[in-house]
Specification:
This protein has helices spanning 42-49, 72-78, 95-101, 111-121, 123-127, 138-150, 168-183, 195-201, 219-223, 226-231; strands at 4-13, 16-26, 31-35, 57-62, 65-66, 80-83, 156-160, 187-192, 204-209, 212-218. Helix 7 (168-183) links the parallel strand 7 (156-160) and strand 8 (187-192). The termini are far apart. The protein has 2 domains: 1-79 and 156-235, Rossmann fold (3-Layer(aba) Sandwich), CATH 3.40.50; 86-153, no CATH class. The chain is an alpha/beta fold.
Amino acid sequence: MPVLNIEGINVFYDNIQAVRDVTLNVRPGEIVTIIGANGAGKTTVQKTIMGLLQARTGSIMFEGEDITRLSTAKIVSRGIALVPEGRRVFPRLSVADNLILGAYARKDKEVAADQARIYEMFPRLGERKKQSAGTLSGGEQQMVAIGRGLMSRPRLLLLDEPSMGLAPVLVSQIFRTIVEINGMGTTVLLVEQNARMALSIAARAYALETGAIVLSGDAAELANNDQVRSAYLGE
């Protein structure tokens, strides 16, 4: 059974349709990527999964439960977390406090241990844990955003353009981290304009154009597809 199953969602901003009959699924343990140009509707799909936008029609199932109309807080409590485009850290709060906020819905006693694991994953954050997040570099802020998402202990992690605005060496580091997170058992749905990098780490992929899925399949096969190579890989 897919961990996430989206069936025919249609999403509008007022009277403007942003997503058209999108159907996709993510299986347990996968990295699945949605590629597409800016404005294709990728972020809208993730916001709809999180309840930040409502689908006018269609359904979203997570682990067999219909979450289409649930609030964002309830969706997070079910086990989904979003690392948003643009990082969206709390700039005046410390790195440590940003991470703690990611665990706001948890009631267990292992939050501190999970925070320590984030510092192991991102040693630079451990060095800067008392520093205001707004004073960090873009790459460091992206680490904070990913760490904050992981602090909710999600079974499904949504990543929206994690490489945006980063230097190439940091892009490679972020993608290695995504693979590491997935290897630790977290299923990942990745939205990314850097199609080459996204397809290199994903098991499966969906290509989105003007709000509709135009191609889907094995990520390696899509990376060799002439249409994908022309439209998304610049070849």
